[in-house]
Amino acid sequence: MERSRRSIPTSERLRQLAEIARCLIEGSLEDRLTAVVERAPKALGVRSASIFLVREDFAGFVDRLALPGVELIPDSPRPAGLTAEVLNTRKALAVDDTAKYPGVNPRVVEAGIRSFLAVPLNSSAGCLGVLYLNQSVPQRFSPADLRLAEAIGDMIGQAVENARLHERERQALQSLEAERHHLASLMAALDRSLAEADLLRDVAAGAAEAEDLDRLLRDVLERLRLRLIFSSGAILLGAGRNLVVRAASGLPARRSPGQRLKRDDQLVWRALATGEPLFENDHAPEGMSVLAIPLRWRGNVLGVLELAASQPDAFDVPDLNLMRKVAEQLAGWIYIAARGARQP
User: Fold this and answer.
1) Distance between CA 315 and CA 281 in Å, rounded?
2) 98, 120, 282, 327: which could join 312 in a potential S-S bond, CB 3.0 to 4.6 Å?
């Protein structure tokens, strides 16, 4: 039997409608819909409300929001149920008595819902879901109830579409920015590769023009100074238990030609012993950066290429890798020059 309910003044309905519209303007989509679920029952004088949203590709449901009192209803509506009917027809459905209306999910009655309005969330993109306005007693909804509920549903539908459009635009901008960053990284890597190739060709050209080994080593250091930022450089070759500075560059020079370095724990000796490039970016106490690259040829370490900068953090891993390539070329020339010097 239909029960009576207190009539809600038109002014109050309009006030609640305006509040719902205001709640749909800003904030996350979930916060907006939660505010609607809280306010819509007040506008129509019903007990509770719930919202089911379809996925953006319209392949099933993605979200469900509800106030307490409808927790027993399954999250995913039945494929052939009343929710699907409202979605397909895009028309509101008024159920005066859930116990007598055919097709009502039995769990709706079990949840204490005895009547409801099911309103499509229409938008320019299609029907994006269904708004349920639930009452705990059988009730005949008036045409004014239906019009108000449809107005709320239309506002929700457009708000959902706008929020999804905004999210897609945000994701598109993020993807575009990531792509720009990726392209910039590729261009920087390409520029560096070209610069490395130019340097290696330049060093090779200088080596081809050098008259002797010492001139070759000095020329290599000078050409490196034109491409890399460092204050001084040296090429040290093994001589028995010592390392001898065969070429030096820079002012003030860290090394001087002819200088012999006895074995100790300096970076150049560690590079010579390990055969691996090493660098220190905060060389105490001087506060400078030092890069030491072993001159390896066919498994033998012939010496060390050392570069020093007067400030910390002057060298990075790409610098180390580039100097490894230079050192490999340089070691080959040193080996060839030394072998030629031994031949009668």
Assistant:
1) 7
2) 282
